[in-house]
Amino acid sequence: MSQRPAGLARWRWNPATRGRAAGERVSRTAVQRRVQSRSAIGYAPAWRSQDAANLRGRGDVRSPLREGHDGRGSVRSSIRVNRLVLRALAAIAALAATAAGQPTVRVATWNIESVGQPGTGQYRAAAMILDRVGADVVALNEINGNTEAVYLEMLAAETGYSRIIVPQTNPFGSLRNAVISRLPVIDWTVHTSRSLSGDGGANDLTRLIVEVVVDVPDTPIDLTLAANHLKAGTTNADEFRRAVEAARFEQVVADLAGSRDAFVILGDLNVTLTSVPGVPNPFTEEPGGMPQSFRLGLDLRELLYRGGGIVNNPFHYLGRWHGPSTSVLDARQLDGGHGTHVSGRRIDYVVASHRLSAACPPAEVYDSADEPRGGGLPKYGDPLPPGISAAASDHLIVFADLRIPRHAGRFGDRDDDGDADLADAAALQTCFTGPDGGPLRQSCRVFDVDCDEDVDLVDFRAFAAAMD
Asked: Residue 108: which domain range?
C-alpha cells in the first residue's frame, strides 16, 4: 500500500472555500488542465477533522459512531481501537512496499447500492469491507441523495478516509457518484454535460462524473481517477445514453496520454465485455423513449448526425479501439470468476492507462464468501464472515494495486531514460514474439502492455503511440 500521510500535504483546501481549491489551480505533472465547474463538497485532511465536520455546521461527525450510537459504546470503542491498529499495520506495510520499489496505490471501485443508516447491518457491513480491503482511494456509486451524503461522511470518517468528493446535485434521479481518499487530494472536478460539451443547454449525463487527482508519496507522478456510473437498462434509449456517457467519460481524460500519464477510469459501467457492441451500431439518430429533459450536447449531436454516429459500445470510447490508451484490468474473485454483481455479470471495472497497466497490476473482486479459500491480494485484519459482502451491497468491491512510476517517463521506456525512443524500439524488435511466442524474457515485460505473456501487435501499436 502507499504510505499514509503523516503530516501536511503539499496542497490542501481552505474549508471556507466549500469546494474550490485554495489559491491557484494546481498544475498537473503532464499537462495543464482546463478549468471546469466545481459543484461539489470538499473536505479538509484528517488532521483537520473538526474543520471538515464544520463545513456543514455539525460537530465531530464521527462521535455518534464512536460513542455508542447503536447502544453498544464499549463495543464501538473496541472497534475503533482495532481499526487504529489495522491502519498502523497498513502504514508499516506501505513503507515496506515503497522501500522495495515503486510506490503502490490501492484503488477500488464499488457500487455500494446504499450507504445505509449508521448502526444498521448494511452500514456496518460496508465499514467492515472498506477496512478489510484498505484501499487508498475508493470510487463509489449510488450515494442516494443528501441524506446518504451525510451517512457517507460518517462512514468515511469511521474508516479513515479524510477527503470526500460528492456532487451536491444530480441531473437524473438522486443516485450520485463519489470519491473518498486517504491520500492528499491536490485537484478535483465534478464534470457536467455543459462543462464537457461547451453547450450551456446540454443535459446528457445520468450522473455527474467525479475526477480527482491525488498526490502519491515518494514520486513526482500524480494519480488521476475518474469515476462514473453509466445508465442501466437494455432498451435502445438506455444503450444510447450509456454510449453517450462513455463518450463523455473519454472527454474527461482526453488531455491525458495513456502512455505517459497515470490515470484510472472506475465505476459501474452496466455492460459486460462480451455483450457489446449492441444493435443498432452505430446510433445515427436519437432513439425513442428518451427522458423529456434529456438534451444531447451540440458536440455529440454533430457526431451523431454528421460525424458517422455514436458507437453502441462504451469500451469503444474507453479502450484502445478509439479513446485513451487504456487496458481493462483482469480482476477476478478467488474462485476465478469475473462477476461483480449479484446476477453474476461483470459490470464494475478498473480501467488503467498503459503507463500503469504495463506493470501488470494485480486486481481482485472481493467477496467475503470466498474468504475460506485464502490467497488473493493482501488484506487487513481478520477474514470477514461469508455473508458480509451480500449484506453490504448487491455489487462486489473491485480493487487493484497500482505501481506508480518514480519518474515522468513513458510506457516502453526499457532503458529508463525518460522517453520511448529508437533505442527502446530496437529492444522491442528483439522482444517481439507474436501471439504464440515462447516464454517472455523478464527484460521484455516492459513491452507487454496487455499482460498476456507475449509481445505482439497489440503491444507494438501501444509502443508506437508512446513514441508519438
From this structure: 15-408
